[in-house]
Every structure is written in C-alpha cells, then in structure tokens.
Design a protein that fits this description.
The protein has 350 residues and is an alpha/beta fold. It has twelve helices and twelve strands. The chain folds into two domains: 166 residues, NAD(P)-binding Rossmann-like Domain (Rossmann fold), CATH 3.40.50; 177 residues, 3-Layer(aba) Sandwich (Rossmann fold), CATH 3.40.50.720.
Length: 350
C-alpha cells in the first residue's frame, strides 16, 4: 500500500513528495569502491557535515559546501557528480546547467524544490529521505490534536486572565466520540492513525494515491465527505500544484461547525487568511499549525486569533532524526554513483 506521504523538514516549502514505501536497505554495509567524485552541498542548514563528509570521503569522494549567492552556488554545482540539497530550488533551467550530475539527494521528504521531471529527462536520479522523522511528526501532530481537543491553550489563557473552572472552555468532547479525518495516508498519517485509534477515535481517510484496496482499519472517502464528517482534520499530503491551496474558504466552510484543523505537513496546503477568518467567525473551534504559507509568518498575524495553536516548523525535529537524515541522504549518493540501486527514488506525481 502506498499513498500520499509527506515529511516535515524545515524548508521553503518543499512537492511534498509521493514517496513509495522503500525497502529498508539503508544499512551500514560497505559500499563498492569507485573513482573519485565530487559532491556539492547547496545549502547547509544542520550544525555540521561530519556524517555526510565521513560517508562520502570513505567512498573516495569530496564534499564541498556552497555559500554566496544563487549564481555562485549553481556555478559550483555545475560540474559536480552529485548535488545534496535541503531548501535550494533546482528548477528546469538550473538542472540543465548540471553537466556531470548523476543524483540530486534531498535531506528531507518533500521535493517540491526540485523539478523531478526535468531531472529524470536528463537521467539524474532524485532521492529523498521519506522515513527519517515519521515518529517525530506523528507525535507532534497528535500533541496538537489533543491539546486542541482538550482546549489546553484556551485553559492556559483563561488562567492567566484570572479565570478558573470549565465554564469558559465548554463544550468539550470525549476523544472516543470524535472522527479524525486524515488527508493523505502515508507513513506519518498511518502512525497518527494508530495513536488516535488507541484513544478510540474513528478514522476516515482521503488519499487518491492509495494503490491497493482500502485498509481494513480505515474508511476511504472523498474530500467533500471527509470535510463534512470529521471533527478533527489532519493534513499529510505533498505540496504539488494540485494540492496548493487545498484547504481554502470553501473547504473550511464545508467543515463541521466546531471542527479542528491541524497541519504539520506543508504550509501552502492551507490558505492562512481564510483559516484565520474561519476561527474569528467561530466556525472552527481550533487550528494547529506547524507550517505556514510564508515562513516565517508575520508574528502580528498570529496574535489574538481564537483557537490558534502554532509552533515554528519544528515537528520534524529530534537529534536522532537529523542524524538519520544526514546519514541516509549521503548514503543515497554513494549508492547511486557506485551503481547500486538507491533506497528512495523519487518519481513525479501523476
């Protein structure tokens, strides 16, 4: 079974990518030797490159970290055998300048900063790391869902104003009475579903990329049905032209009064202004956002919005997750240049 799957990494908004369930072959076995090769890292966002450099140099390569303006980064990458990237945008014209490149490896899950189709036309493999922060994002999602269902932010604010008791927090539902709608049913969403099911929630799913029959544990529905039936909706789909603005004014209006929306996948899936309007109007009871249309968002736009819980694009993060991403991304390069099948090939969504 495959489906929409999205990570969550710090990014400018990287298509969350449709990443197939890859075999777990990314181990520490010695890779085949090869001629010297050159890897360019377009944008270093992690504290160091010790892990990547160790893997690449052990295979006979060198790692160069780019800096400077966009033109200088592209010039450095022009004759690289491999490109390692996080946020740096590589469009069709940029990819056409890569004279030797055999692989573009992205640290995170989403690859909307890379023109995957253009890379494929030039015989360049694109890889991601679709399984490195599943636990982190799922946990963050469930934390937001439960905080909003139990109205923790509202209770906190109430007490700071001298309030006490449940009067200002009514109504409040039992989790086991709620229906959770998951838009996308990839790795992260499945883990969210397991946690929600343990609390007794009913799970419904919209995912047009599921390739098998409906999983026994969930009900597959179309998007209008999910919007109208869910008490809580959580987004777990990639950012593509088809999903940009997936949740706008019409979709928010179609949600049940008093429903909750959570987005820990890609900011541009949700029209932020429309969401704020729905919260201010009282149509929605709450919204949890870890990602935004523009990042970082204008802090003033976040203030005094009823029911809004926000975090600064951190759902992906743990020390272990970052190290895993670094290791797996660099390993894809060594495998590709050594003629070994990569673990995480990315193909265009169709």
């Amino acid at each position: 079974m495959t489906g929409w799957d999205v990570e969550h990494t710090p990014d400018t908004h990287t298509p969350d990518t449709h990443a197939p369930d890859a075999p777990d072959t990314h181990d520490d076995k010695e890779e085949p030797s090869m001629d010297a090769f050159r890897v360019v890292l377009t944008d270093q966002v992690f504290p160091d490159t010790v892990i990547e450099r160790g893997i690449i140099e052990a295979a006979g390569g060198t790692l160069e970290v780019a800096d400077g303006d966009r033109a200088s980064v592209l010039e450095l990458a022009r004759r690289a055998d491999a490109v390692l990237t996080t946020y740096f945008a590589l469009g069709r014209q940029d990819i056409a300048q890569l004279e030797r490149c055999k692989i573009i490896a992205r640290y995170g899950i989403g690859v909307d900063n890379v023109d995957v189709a253009a890379a494929g036309e030039r015989g360049i493999i694109v890889t991601n790391v679709p399984d490195y922060c599943v636990e982190e994002v799922a946990t963050h999602t469930l934390a937001m869902v439960l905080a909003l269902v139990r109205k923790l932010p509202s209770g906190h604010a109430e007490m700071l104003q001298g309030g006490w008791g449940v009067g200002g927090l009514r109504p409040m539902s039992r989790p086991s009475e709620l229906t959770l709608g998951l838009v996308g049913y990839g790795r992260i969403a499945r883990q969210v579903a397991r946690g929600a099911r343990a609390l007794g929630m009913t799970i419904i799913v919209h995912d047009p990329y599921l390739t098998d029959a409906a999983p026994a544990e969930v009900e597959l529905v179309d998007l209008p049905s999910l919007l109208g039936r869910s008490d809580v909706i959580s987004l777990h789909c990639p950012l593509t032209e088809a999903t940009r603005g997936l949740i706008g004014s019409d979709e928010l209006a179609a949600m049940r009064p008093g429903a909750i929306l959570v987005n820990t996948s890609r900011g541009p899936l949700v029209r932020f202004d429309a969401l704020v309007a729905a919260l201010r109007a009282g149509h929605l009871a709450g919204a949890g956002l870890d990602v935004f249309e523009t990042e970082p968002p204008d802090a003033a736009a976040l203030r005094d919005v009823p029911g809004l819980l926000v975090t600064p694009h951190v759902a992906f993060y743990s020390e272990a997750a970052i190290k895993e991403s670094q290791h797996k991304a660099a390993t894809q390069i060594v495998k590709a240049l050594g003629g070994v099948p990569v673990d995480y090939p990315v193909r265009p969504l169709t």
